[in-house]
């Protein structure tokens, strides 16, 4: 399952959430992507940005920083209503 498929629908409108690239960068040693999560319907997004960084090592792509799981976890976190609020 890809990361976008793991995202729950928007808590406000039920729209589809997607990881979106905010910025990218590169040096002679690595490439990086700064990304966020945003609802494709209402535009709600997390207030935090996350990073994915990779380098080429011995001819193979090596991920050196990967915050995709953390981003999915933060988007999918929902505050549970207290029983007194449900009544």
List the helices and strands and how they pair.
Layout: H1 3-6, E1 17-26, E2 30-39, E3 50-57, E4 60-66, H2 68-76, H3 83-86
Q: Quick gist of this model?
A:
This protein is an alpha+beta fold.
State the main characteristics.
87 residues, alpha+beta, 4 strands, 3 helices
Write a structural description:
The model has no long low-confidence stretch (mean pLDDT 92). Helix content is 20%, strand content 40%. It has helices spanning 3-6, 68-76, 83-86; strands spanning 17-26, 30-39, 50-57, 60-66. It has 87 residues and is an alpha+beta fold.
Based on CA atoms alone, the radius of gyration comes out at 16 Å
Classification by helices and strands: alpha+beta
Tell me the strand order in the biggest sheet: 1-2-3-4
What share of residues is helical? 10-25%
Major sheet details: 4 strands, antiparallel
Number of strands: 4
Shape: elongated
Low-pLDDT ranges: none
Distinct helical segment count: 3
Cα separation of the termini: 37 Å
How do the helices and strands follow one another from N- to C-terminus?
HEEEEHH
Average pLDDT, all residues: 92
- Tell me the fraction of residues in β-strands, as a range: 35-45%
